[in-house]
């Protein structure tokens, strides 16, 4: 019949964290920087908040230098949300030069795992790519205090994800 392949979605419960202090070392990567099949994709709708924070925290906290976190969105915005740039600077991560990227099937084929945050139904299906879905609130149009809570939830989930998967 043609059209898009069927969608696949898995959900896992990861408990909400308590806020913690971050390592001041910065690490961010863009999808254009040659992803490899062991890399981890963090995806949300606009690639302007949750996925940008998740990729940055993954790159900060991972222990395997050969694996990197990248991010993309199913309907990318034109820039990272200003409140997200502000709250990430508070923990030593500068997202000011990051640009939202479109999540395509081709890009999804370059990673081993896609962690979705709000875009599960619209993410491309790629055989052999593990899909993990995290229900995390979008920081768009949130106050700085509300966005900080979301940031801290994402960072703790990233730490747990790295520990569970030995990244």
TrEMBL record:
Name of a matching Pfam family: LMWPc
Biased composition (Polar residues): 25-34
GO biological process: response to arsenic-containing substance
Region: Disordered, residue numbers: 1-34
Keyword annotations of the record: Arsenical resistance
Domain Phosphotyrosine protein phosphatase I: residue ranges: 38-164
Protein name per Swiss-Prot or TrEMBL: Phosphotyrosine protein phosphatase I domain-containing protein
Protein source organism: Linnemannia hyalina
């Amino acid at each position: 019949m043609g059209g898009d392949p069927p969608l696949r979605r898995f959900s896992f419960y990861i408990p909400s964290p308590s806020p913690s202090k971050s390592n001041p070392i910065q690490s961010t990567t863009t999808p254009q920087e040659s992803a490899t099949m062991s890399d981890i994709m963090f995806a949300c709708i606009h690639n302007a908040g949750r996925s940008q924070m998740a990729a940055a925290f993954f790159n900060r906290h991972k222990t395997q230098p050969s694996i990197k976190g990248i991010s993309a969105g199913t309907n990318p915005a034109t820039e990272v949300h200003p409140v997200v740039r502000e709250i990430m600077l508070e923990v030593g991560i500068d997202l000011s030069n990051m640009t939202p990227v479109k999540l395509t099937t081709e890009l999804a084929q370059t990673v081993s795992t896609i962690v979705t945050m709000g875009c599960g139904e619209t993410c491309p299906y790629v055989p052999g790519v593990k899909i993990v879905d995290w229900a995390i609130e979008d920081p768009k149009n949130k106050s700085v205090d509300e966005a900080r809570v979301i940031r801290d939830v994402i960072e703790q989930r990233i730490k747990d994800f790295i520990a569970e998967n030995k990244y």
